[in-house]
Design brief:
Layout: H1 4-10, E1 12-16, H2 21-33, E2 39-44, H3 52-60, H4 67-73, H5 75-81, E3 82-86, H6 98-104, E4 108-113, H7 124-145, E5 148-152, E6 162-165, H8 188-205, H9 212-229, H10 234-248, E7 254-259, E8 261-263, H11 281-288, E9 293-294, E10 304-306, H12 307-322, E11 329-332, H13 342-350, E12 354-355, H14 358-389, H15 394-427, E13 429-432, H16 435-441, H17 446-451, H18 461-488
Length: about 500
Amino acid sequence: MTDVVQTFRNHEILLTGGNGFLGKVVLGLLLDRFPDLKHVHLLLRPRGNLSVKDRFYREMLASPALASIAEKRGQAFLESRISVLAGDVGDENAGMDRGDVDRLTGRVSVVLNCAGLVDFYPPVDASFRSNVDGVRRLAALAKRWGAKLAHISTCFVCGESDGLVEETEPILGFYPRRAGAGDSSFHHEDEIRCCQDRIRHIYASEGGARSKETARRLTDLGRQRAEHWGWANTYTYAKSLGEQILAADQELDSVIIRPAIIEGALRFPFPGWIEGGRTSAPLVLMALSGMKDWPVRRDATLEVAPVDLVASAILVVTALLLHGRHEPVYQLGTADVNPILLEPLVQLLAGDARFVSPEEAKARRQRLQKRITQAQSVIAGIRKTLETTGLPGKQSLSSWNMALRARGLQASLREQTLDQYLPFILHNRYIFESENVRAAYAQLSEPDRRLLPWDPEGIDWEDYWRNNQIKGIEKWIQPEAVKEWALRI
């Protein structure tokens, strides 16, 4: 049996991405469940006038995910268990100064890489810096230290799918439209060079400046390369390239961990805690705001996993990696043992939802936009008349116009959001084989399983969505979404 408690007592960890949604829970579990852990070196980027230590105390320890743990353990404990280092995974040596790199040689046993740019369609150079170059830099650093690397990817590197996605799918040479094992059309290093050449060409044609036009062209480039090979978006395209860098490296002992969509906490740090906008939160917020027309594949599952279960599984796999008892890939999905069908989920979220085709939904939105435009034109005419005659009422017209503008913006944002999520709710049907993580837990003692549970088969999804996910989104994400909405108006 693998003793997880003893493993973390004996090995030092470099953690990247610890300030993200998942990273905070990974760090919280380490501090809460393993008070005798040897040491965590936390890599953070300075931001503005804030040093990395300022960011750690103000942004991370003040987070709901860590505040109660920090209070319980105390500052002396934190300082004895955590070192905060300045760096950036996209730079050589992950941006650390040479003194830190040398000091950690022979000390860090494993690099746990939770860093990554999770935007679906960012400028492709930004995605490459984090999800491609960052993997290469961390792999080189781990080899310099004689350490191992646990890399967090995503299940959706599979691209287009209609059914079971196996953990044994070959990584090298993979692209979603691959025509069998004999298809050698894709090589990750050729694709990386091709994309980087086009990035340089875009910058050169714009005079080297990072303007709005440069960012637009770089965003379009990422979308084009992903669509060309069959990935759903720039994020999954870049993540697959990062995986292939690791798979090609014969000198590095590494593991790839692929979560499904990471959602609100089941139990830890408390039920319903959630952060960020790349979960199902945008869909939930649209449902709560009254959206009724849903272009979804009713027989498909939504592959999600609570963040604390994902973080627990990551730590278990990391312990197995340290003992050399790991598989190459671990998928962390739930639909193979406890599926959530989209039809009842949408009905739960949206009440009397109408299931429509994308064409029907778009036509409805266009009719709404046309009515809004007509109403705005009428208001503009009335305003002109009032200004000419000097009659009162312009204030009421301004309020009406603002309401119409908000309605139009809401429709536009819904359309943009749905377009990004259609691969996950309409175009594909995903079921991720997650046998390896179950086999991993079979290697643990019962006390270790209780410390780091992975038990998706026992989740009551209706109760989870009502009392964890929806309430968590309403409390932790909706207020920020409303602020952003107000700024756009």
